[in-house]
Amino acid sequence: MKVNKILGVGLVTVGLLGLAGISSADEQKVYIPNAYVRQYLLQGAGLHPDEVENQLPTISQLETITEHDESLLLMVGHDEGAVSESLEGLDYVKNVKTIMLNGGSGVTDFRPLRGAKDSVEVIDHYSPGLLDLAYDNAVDLSFLDGFTKLKNFHMVMNVTDLSAFDSIPTMERINIDNEGDDRAITSGKIGVSRSNKALVMANPIIYSTHFSNQPNAQLRIKTDTGATVSIVVRDDMFYITDIPADAKTLTMTIEKDTEFEIDSEDADMGYAHHRVTCEYEIKWY
């Protein structure tokens, strides 16, 4: 059975595989705190919210969510005013190939996605919305360790450590972006000499081996004074000079694009893109 619906937060085609009368009063029920996540998971299991006592589905009901007719399986949005930005409930969705997260800039824990680590091929997180909560810190991708079929990963968040992708031999496309240079994470302090108004630092991003074909990142820097600084990037080392003496912060946007070899019938090369914005407090000495 296939049902196509357009929901207010951007839900597109959703494949539904109904569940008919196999639940039991003795089965463990699952509390899903986020209202939108709860709505979509119930619908994905072929359940109407009014048919589920207290809107608490059972584990076996959630495990029936699967792909049908190559439609997108699951698309989860968020409510800007929601108390919880939790993805709880996705822990029990184990048989989907595509997970799309529409919104969710307040999500800080992506570990529930591990429920589908042996089936999912595409994770697409986009349009994070207006909340700023998750931009204060970099998103932790360690939850990806152990995924066995993931090919395509897209996320609109600030990420500084991409090493988790090294554990996934099936990767074909990595696209991690932020929403712009104004969405910076607080990255600590850097020392700048008053005598030469310069600093040398290594690129702080930890890349996966998928980025090894590109030795240098692109670097853009803004100071809180608006003054321009001089930049040289060589072997992923940053040489920054002409820092204004009254500057208090440096905001760095670091970007890297490259191709990498893959073992696929559809293409010979994969693609990796990463961009992050970090704000550093200047400590003059």
Q: Measure the end-to-end span.
A: 68 Å
Quickly give the structural class. Answer: mainly beta
Beta percentage is 25-35%
**Could you say which overall geometry the principal axes of the C-alpha atoms support?**
elongated
Q: What is the overall number of helices?
A: 2
Total count of strands:
14
Mean pLDDT: 82
Task: Write structural notes for this entry.
- There is one protein chain.
- It contains two helices and 14 strands, in the order ββααββββββββββββ.
- It is mainly beta and 285 residues long.
- The strands form three sheets. Strands 3, 4, 5, 6, 7, 8, 10, 13 and 14 form a nine-stranded mixed β-sheet that branches. It has a three-stranded antiparallel β-sheet with strand order 9-12-11, with no helix packed on it. Strands 1-2 form a two-stranded antiparallel sheet.
Write the SSE topology.
Elements lengths: L1 E2 L10 E2 L19 H10 L14 H4 L11 E3 L21 E5 L19 E5 L25 E5 L16 E5 L7 E8 L6 E4 L15 E6 L6 E5 L2 E5 L7 E13 L7 E16 L1
Parallel strand pairs: 3-4, 4-5, 5-6, 6-7, 7-14, 8-14
Antiparallel strand pairs: 1-2, 9-12, 10-13, 11-12, 13-14
